[in-house]
From TrEMBL:
One of its GO terms (molecular function) is sequence-specific DNA binding. Gene3D superfamilies: 1.20.58.2140. This is Uncharacterized protein MJ0175. It comes from Geodia barretti (Barrett's horny sponge). InterPro entries: Translin_sf.
Length: 187
């Protein structure tokens, strides 16, 4: 019974979190907040599972739900200009929080690329610096692998590595700046 309930909650939290992130990328922050609030209520229902069945609570599917919930919350906070919530405020365990934070690097990259496509470079550097900061924090965290095989924020954030990832949008930002300077000179 508890496992089935946890699976249903996990799927709903992951769906709401993914939809909240999509809403953030559309700048629909009120919809994102609504979806996150709904996901938060669902996660609260797992408190009893944590007490009665910790093996289910810490199973991969609920850990993934807490990670996705964290990712949605931090993505909303960063892009909307709010304060980044900590793990206690979100009610998630530190491993899920750090894994969710690692996923935010990809969401910031997506936001930057979307901004560059629409010639809006206003916050791109700010977000690239934040990506660097998140990456810098996560690579210093050392998690014992034996405790939970699913925890590997260092591995998750290597794709967002500031200095080594050729897909990082730095070169696009530089190109947009150059295009803007050339356009200003032509005037």
């Amino acid at each position: 019974m508890a496992r089935e309930q946890a699976l249903v909650i996990s799927r709903q939290v992951i769906r709401n979190s993914a939809n909240a992130i999509r809403a953030v990328h559309r700048n629909d922050f009120s919809e994102a907040s609504r979806l996150i609030l709904e996901a938060s209520g669902l996660l609260t229902e797992t408190d009893r599972i944590r007490t009665d069945n910790p093996e289910i609570y810490y199973a991969g599917f609920l850990s993934d739900a807490r990670k996705e919930f964290t990712e949605a919350n931090i993505t909303l906070a960063v892009i909307s200009g709010g304060d980044i919530p900590d793990s206690e405020k979100l009610g998630v365990d530190p491993p899920a929080y750090l894994n969710g934070m690692a996923e935010v690097i990809g969401e910031l990259r997506r936001y930057i690329l979307d901004s560059l496509r629409s010639d809006d470079i206003g916050r791109c550097e700010e977000f690239m610096e934040l990506m660097d900061e998140i990456y810098g924090i996560l690579v210093t965290v050392d998690f014992p692998r034996g405790r939970n095989r699913r925890i590997a924020p260092q591995h998750r954030c290597h794709a967002g590595s500031a200095g080594t990832n050729p897909r990082r949008p730095d070169h696009l930002l530089q190109q947009r700046r150059l295009e803007q300077r050339l356009a200003e000179r032509e005037r």
